[in-house]
Every structure is written in structure tokens, then in C-alpha cells.
Design goal:
heterodimer; A: Rossmann fold; Rossmann fold; six-stranded mixed beta sheet; 17 helices; 20 strands; B: two-stranded antiparallel sheet
């Protein structure tokens, strides 16, 4: 192995309108090393991958040297030509084609062939699978294979490209323990052949098993790159958290009686044995890594899925909402994470959006809508929540993210809920507007509403939660008092502790 | 047992089974069904359907839909009829003109879908409506007849004919069936042995991935629609060899038969899966049903009702299968990193 790094990043930045996704990143990826890449959601991992694969171009002034040559302009094509292959989480394979085609077709394209040489397709596929020492029936449709095998096919395809560096985005997220073992064996084998691997994973323990070095990103900045022998899980967590953004804490003080109680609800594969309670006037923060089952769990309260066991009590009465309509009538409101696609009708105006859940109230004489009253109600909410600009007939799509979120809030507040569930309330909103949403939520709680807030942003969780539940792999891993939790203590429980293959080295 | 299981792994097996059962049933009901004459006759008239279905097959494989086959075929028949009345009926030239007209329409559809990103159902609905309107205006709905002998003679050519011609019976294989077989063989080779063909499957299976590994999705889409147009062109010429006159209204509603044949043959309407063999079986099934209804003296009004119900049935099966497969594959949510 040569000492020259395969990829050298120097002062790489990437700015999106309003956000600096990568901020002056400099580090090396050595030839034939396995480099772990970690960071919280939004730390800049994906942006970095997309720059290396040519999907995004970095800001001017960034300098990327690949294989000793400075590369001015990375395109998806020349990134592949230089041997950088990304295996995305969705694997980018073709379920309707056979394994041999999935592996070899790209080689045909690369050579600009017009016709298919099936013999060649077969030989190329057989060769790489042999190299990997994997046995997969080349003639079966890819879609009939397990995810683990599909992943091996994706790796095989990368080898067909003559990969020098394979970037794997969360490769173990849907694999069993045995399958992870096989994957790690393959990764070591690639390393021995001088092929580098960038391994992106939330499961920190895994990194120690398979990586040579680990790079930590935080808020788009390079915190450091460490040989695995110099760090441990606790150290990594402390490096990952401590984001620069933080909010002044707004705790509640007067809580009323219990309004919602959840006992042991489970839904296989999504969440298990979840129990908690919520009081009037309280904000319960629920956090955890993406995929920990938070959203699925709160959706059960709103009738979007039905737990297979356990019970839910609203004001002491047992409920089991079958659909959102029922949940709404019981006094539960749910504001989803993707407000643009699930929470709003973008092509309608503010007034129509706000009044949508209570539209029946305006259907007076012979079921025709009373628009005068509808607009009057909408105006009240617009001024209550300070939606700007304050025109009820403005198209929602023209509003800023923060104001769109206020419209979603208004829409559900109009149903006068007893319990408000809000998923990632400030996703994609600028910092000032985030603060406004926090204040609104705190205000609602003070008026006696029970609020469940799901959020990945620890500063936000710490700022307004009275109590905090940390979910991990579908279960509640810990509960904290909002006044006592810290980013480190939360992350310690959020990160999966599954002892992966071979134990920690 | 194992053999049967393996047999039914193929989507085409179901339709093949239904065909065999129908053939047995219809033969019992009416002995004339399973005769060479009957088959040669109904396959001849359904060759237009078969050829058009081969075209629509490629479009459906890309994950799009083409409901303009009827308009395109009608246009081709009118264009070649007028062409022949003006310039004579050299069959070779007429074929070229027919194919070119179809291909041109296909390019237009393809560009509307690939470049302007108009959903294919809307784009082809619009072109179909425009073509039909223009044809009615141009022909005033009148039939075009008096086509040159030089051309119409082609339609009577038989292959493998024995020398003794019996009264009123078809003798040998009509040329139209041969055209359909050749079109099927060519389409099979295009799909199986060209990168264009494999690209169509890739595009229909996973468009983003196709793009990522270097296929030009837009070009594939345009080419698929163009190939479809070529087939409609051939179908239009073949139709004219059968009827020897042209009625621009003859094809209204025909596109549903074409799409029906394709989906009956096990081609997935969501794209990426299906074969030439299946499409031909779908054509065969539709033809047998139509012929069977005639032979068993069931009113022809029932034809479209029966065909509609069968298509509904076939598509529902397809959707149920897709749902089942979706459940089996693990859902990988692609979490967009916040920027």
C-alpha cells in the first residue's frame, strides 16, 4: 500500500441557500483503508458523499485531490472513472433483472456497447462473485433475494467498475447479525486487495470492529479523524454532540392531571413495549436516531397504525383509534414531519388549509360552505399565531417554511385538541423561526394542552421538553427529566448498543 | 409437483393455462373452432392487434402508457391510402411510408413525455384526440377505396399453400400472420439482445438507478415510443392489406384492446416486467374469446363487456402481485439529509 492518500480533501465547503452544509473540511482517505464516517443527522455526511460522487459540486476554493491529481470538476461519470463507487442505502439495483445483469450491465454501458453479449455478462458476473467468494444464483431475479444478498450484488457491481474506493451508506441498517459478519469479512477482503471503504454508520460499535480510522463530522465541520485505537464509543459520542446551536431553556412549571397514558404498546418491527404518560401542560420530548421507531410509535396514537398489543388511555378512558378521523374526534392532533406533502395542501390558500379539519362546521344551509365565517375563523388563527404575511387568501406554497409550519399548527389547533403530537416541528426552518415555534408550543402547553414532540435535534429537545424519552431500536431506552438531561447522556442511550459480530476490538 | 410450481413462476403461465382450457371448451361447443381454417382466419384479422400490442409493450415496459395506438394506426391507413391514390401502389414504398408515418408520431409522443415531462397518459390522450379530429376533418368520415391492385394483391398472398384451392376456404398461412410473427421475432431480439432493450427493462425497473449507471432515460423513452410508432405503422399497412379500403373511424376504441392484450400477457403496468411471448399469448387469448363468442352465437355486444371484465381481472391480479412484492421487500426509507 502506498503512502499517498487516495482522496485528499482540502478546505472543502458546500453552501446551500441559508445553510453551510460543509464548512472547511480537510482530511485524507488513504488507499485501502476502511474509514468510518460518523455524525448526527444533518452533520454533513450525505453532502460529503454527494460531493465525492459528483452529485453536488463544492464551493469555489475547495480543493480535492484524487489519486495525486487535483480534480477541478467531479461529475458522476468521472467520479466512477476514478474508481469512486457509492452504494446508497437503496442499493440502486434493478429488482426486475437477473443477478448477472445487475452486476454486469454497467460494464456494457461503460464500453458503450449497443448489443448485449450474454456470455460476457455471465462471465463478468461470475468472476466478481468468485473474487468475493460469494455464491449467488446468477439467473434469479434480484428482487427475490434477501437484502443482504442484494447488498453483496451491489458490492460486486462496484468491483466491476474497478472501484478503488467504495462508499457504503448505512450498509448494515437492515441486516441480521450473521449477515453483518459476512459483510465485514468482505470489507476486510476488499481492504486486503487495496480497495478503500468509507463506512457510514450510526452503529458506533460496528465501526470499531471493521474500521482503521474514524472521521467525525459535526455541524458540517471536521471534528477530527482518529485511529480506532485512540477512541471509544463514549469519546465518539462526545465528539459528535455539542452542536453549536443551542436554545435558552423554556421549561414548564405547572402541570395538571394525567391526560394520556400508553401501556405496553407494540407493533412488530416498529416499536415494542412502549409505556409512558403525559400530563396537561407538559411537553414530552421523544428523541432517538432516525429509524428508532419514534414516528411509527406516535402515529399509533393518531390511528395511523394499530399496535398489536397494549393499550392507550385518553383522560382515563381506553381508546383505540382506527383512523385519523377517529383520533381527531377524540381530541388528538398529529402534525407530521413532512409538512409539505402530508400536512398541507400547497396549492390552496391559507384559510382553506387552516379550516380543513373543521370544514364541516362551515357547511350550514343545504351543506354549502359559509365562506364569510370560514375566513373569519382563519383570520383569528392567522393573528393568534402571527402568520406572516397575514393574508388568508394567500397560497400556502408562497409562505416561508416557518410560516407554513404555523399554518399546519393553526389547522390542528382549530380542532381544539387535548393532545398535540408534533413530529420534527422545526425541520428545515431557520433558527429564528424555530424559536418562534418553540414559544408557540410552550404557550399551548401553558394553556393546558399535552404536547408530544418528536425531534432529532437535541438542542431543541433540551430547550423545551419537560421530560425526555430516548428511543432506540423500537424501544424506550431511557427517560430523563428535561432539566437534567444533556446531549451526551441522551446520545449514550440513542446509539444502538447491539454487540455486533466479534465484539469490540 | 415441482415442475408445476416452476411452470407457474412465469407470469405467462396463467394466460397459457386459460388459453388451453378455452380451446378445449370451445372445441367441445363447436367443432369448427379447432380447424386450421378458423385459426388462420381469426389470426389474420387479429394480426393488426398483435403487431400494435408489440409496440405498446415497449412503452409499458418503460413504465409509461400509450393510448394513441388507435389514432396512429388510423392515421397511417389514411396516409398510405391517399399516397397510393396519388403516387401508385408499389407495396415496398407503401410500407416505408406507413412505417415512417408511425415512427414520426412516436417521436412526437416520446418527446412530449421525455422532454416536456407530460405524463404519458395525458400526452398520448392528447395526440390521439388531435389525430382523430384531424382525420375526421380531412376525410369527412368517408371511406377511401379504389386502392391500386398492385398493393391490395399483397394481402391475398398465402404461404405454404397447397395447389388445390377448395371452395371458400383459406388455404395456407395468410401473409398478415407472417408479418406478425416477423414483428414478434424482431421485437424479441430488440428486447433481449440490444442495450436499448435492456435499458427499457432497467428504466422500468428502477428509473433512478438506470440513470445512475449511465443509461440515458430520456433517449430510451423517446426510442420506445418511436418503436411503438413503427409497429403501429406496420399494423396500419397490414390492416389495409386485409380490408383493401380505409375507414378512418375503424379504430376508435381499439387502443383498449391493444393495452388489454399486453396486460393479459402478464406485462406489468408499472413497467419493467413482461415479454414478447406473453404479449402474443395475450393477443391470442383476446382473439380466441372474440372468435369463441361469435362461434357460440353470443351477441357481439357482449364482446366488449367480456373483454373489459377480463382486462379488469388481469390488471387486478397484477396490482395484487405488486402489492404483495412490495410487502416482501424491506422498505428502505431514504432519509434526506437536511441542508
Amino acid at each position: 500500500m502506498s503512502n499517498e492518500p487516495f482522496v485528499r480533501l482540502q478546505h472543502v465547503s458546500k453552501t446551500f441557500p441559508g445553510v453551510k452544509a460543509l464548512d472547511d473540511i480537510s482530511f485524507d482517505i488513504n488507499t485501502g483503508e476502511v474509514l468510518g464516517l460518523v455524525g448526527e443527522n444533518g452533520a454533513g455526511k450525505s453532502t460529503l458523499i454527494k460531493i465525492l460522487s459528483g452529485v453536488y459540486s463544492p464551493d469555489p476554493g475547495s480543493n480535492i485531490i484524487i489519486n495525486g491529481k487535483q480534480v477541478m470538476n467531479i461529475t458522476p461519470k468521472n467520479s466512477l472513472d476514478m474508481g469512486i463507487v457509492v452504494i446508497y442505502q437503496d442499493l440502486s439495483l434493478f429488482p426486475n433483472l437477473t443477478v448477472r445483469e445487475n452486476i454486469s450491465l454497467s460494464k456494457h454501458i461503460e464500453k458503450n456497447r449497443k448489443t448485449v453479449n450474454w456470455k460476457n455478462i455471465d462471465i463478468v458476473a461470475r468472476n466478481v462473485l468468485d473474487q468475493l467468494g460469494v455464491q449467488i444464483d446468477l439467473g434469479v431475479k434480484l428482487g427475490s433475494l434477501s437484502v443482504a444478498k442484494q447488498q453483496l450484488v451491489a458490492i460486486a457491481r462496484a468491483l466491476v467498475y474497478d472501484a478503488k474506493l467504495i462508499i457504503m451508506d448505512e450498509p448494515t441498517s437492515s441486516l441480521s447479525k450473521g449477515e453483518i459478519d459476512v459483510l465485514f469479512k468482505i470489507i476486510r477482503q476488499l481492504r486486503n486487495r487495496g480497495i478503500g471503504v468509507v463506512f457510514v454508520s450510526h452503529k458506533l460499535e460496528e465501526l470499531f470492529i471493521v474500521c482503521d480510522r474514524i472521521t467525525v463530522l459535526r455541524d458540517g465541520k471536521h471534528v477530527g479523524t482518529f485511529p480506532v485505537s485512540e477512541v471509544n464509543t463514549e469519546k465518539l459520542i462526545s465528539l459528535m454532540v455539542g452542536r453549536s446551536v443551542s436554545f435558552e431553556r423554556m421549561a414548564g412549571d405547572k402541570f395538571g392531571e394525567e391526560i394520556l397514558r400508553v401501556e405496553n404498546i407494540s407493533l412488530a418491527g416498529n416499536y415494542e413495549n412502549i409505556s409512558f404518560s403525559l400530563r396537561k401542560g407538559e411537553i414530552l420530548g421523544i428523541t432517538g436516531l432516525v429509524g428508532a421507531g419514534r414516528t411509527e410509535m406516535v402515529q399509533a396514537l393518531f390511528g395511523l397504525n394499530r399496535p398489536s398489543s397494549g393499550s392507550i388511555y385518553l383522560e382515563g378512558k381506553k381508546i383505540s383509534p382506527k383512523n385519523p378521523q377517529e383520533a381527531k374526534e377524540m381530541g388528538i392532533a398529529y402534525i407530521p414531519e413532512s409538512r409539505q406533502t402530508e400536512g398541507l395542501i400547497l396549492r390552496q390558500n391559507v384559510a382553506r388549509n387552516i379550516t380543513l379539519p373543521i370544514i364541516r362546521e362551515f357547511a350550514k344551509k343545504v351543506k354549502l360552505l359559509d365562506f364569510k365565517e370560514l375566513f373569519a375563523v382563519a383570520r383569528t388563527w392567522i393573528s393568534n399565531l402571527d402568520v406572516r404575511p397575514n393574508y388568508p387568501d394567500m397560497l400556502v406554497s408562497k409562505l416561508s417554511g416557518g410560516n407554513q409550519q404555523k399554518v399546519v399548527l393553526a389547522k390542528w389547533l382549530a380542532t381544539k385538541p387535548k393532545v398535540l403530537i408534533i413530529d420534527e416541528p422545526t425541520n428545515g426552518i431557520d433558527v429564528g423561526a424555530k424559536r418562534e415555534i418553540h414559544q408557540l408550543l410552550r404557550g399551548l402547553a401553558n394553556e393546558g394542552m399535552g404536547i408530544i414532540m418528536v425531534s432529532s435535534e437535541l438542542p431543541e429537545i433540551l430547550a423545551i421538553s419537560d421530560r425526555i424519552l430516548v428511543m432506540r431500536q423500537g424501544r424506550i431506552a431511557a427517560e430523563f427529566d428535561g432539566n437534567e438531561a444533556t446531549q451526551e447522556s441522551i446520545m449514550n442511550y440513542a446509539v444502538p448498543k447491539g454487540k455486533a459480530a466479534g465484539g469490540v476490538i | 409437483m415441482n415442475v408445476i410450481k416452476r411452470f407457474y413462476r412465469y407470469k405467462e403461465s396463467t394466460v397459457a393455462t386459460i388459453i388451453v382450457l378455452l380451446v378445449i371448451g370451445l372445441t367441445i361447443l363447436n367443432r369448427t373452432f379447432l380447424t386450421f381454417d378458423n385459426w388462420a382466419s381469426f389470426l389474420k384479422s387479429n394480426s393488426v392487434l398483435g403487431i400494435a400490442a408489440l409496440g405498446t409493450l415497449l412503452v409499458i415496459l418503460t413504465g409509461n402508457i400509450d393510448i394513441s395506438s388507435s389514432g396512429q394506426i388510423a392515421l397511417v391507413t389514411v396516409v398510405i391510402a391517399k399516397f397510393m391514390l396519388a403516387f401508385g401502389g408499389n407495396p415496398f414504398i407503401v410500407f416505408i411510408v406507413g412505417l415512417a408515418t408511425g415512427a414520426l408520431m412516436g417521436v412526437v409522443n416520446g418527446l412530449l413525455v421525455a422532454k416536456l415531462k407530460i405524463p404519458s397518459i395525458i400526452a398520448t390522450l392528447a395526440t390521439n384526440t388531435i389525430i382523430n379530429g384531424a382525420l375526421r376533418w380531412y376525410t369527412n368520415g368517408a371511406w377511401i377505396s379504389g386502392l391500386p391492385d398492385e398493393f391490395t394483391r399483397v394481402g391475398d398472398i398465402m404461404f405454404f399453400a397447397s395447389s388445390e384451392v377448395e371452395n371458400g376456404t383459406i388455404n395456407g398461412v395468410p401473409i398478415q400472420i407472417l408479418f406478425m410473427v416477423i414483428a414478434a421475432v424482431i421485437t424479441f431480439f430488440v428486447l433481449r439482445y440490444t442495450m436499448f432493450g435492456r435499458g427499457i427493462y432497467a428504466l422500468g425497473g428502477n428509473a433512478d438507478s438506470a440513470q445512475r449507471i449511465g443509461f440515458n432515460n430520456d433517449r430510451l423513452t423517446v426510442m420506445a415510443f418511436t418503436y411503438a410508432g413503427l409497429m403501429y405503422g406496420l399494423a396500419g399497412v397490414v390492416y389495409t392489406t386485409i380490408m383493401k379500403t380505409v375507414d378512418s373511424n375503424a379504430f376508435i376504441g381499439f387502443e383498449m384492446n391493444v393495452i388489454g392484450a399486453v396486460v393479459l400477457g402478464g406485462v406489468s403496468i408499472s413497467g419493467g416486467s413482461g415479454s414478447v411471448f406473453g404479449t402474443m399469448l395475450g393477443m391470442l387469448l383476446l382473439s380466441i374469446i372474440k372468435n369463441g363468442l361469435v362461434l357460440t352465437r353470443i351477441s357481439t355486444y357482449w364482446q366488449s363487456i367480456v373483454i373489459g371484465i377480463i382486462i379488469l381481472f388481469a390488471v387486478s391480479l397484477d396490482i395484487i402481485n405488486i402489492k404483495r412484492e412490495e410487502k416482501r421487500t424491506i422498505k428502505v426509507d431514504i432519509v434526506k439529509e437536511e441542508v
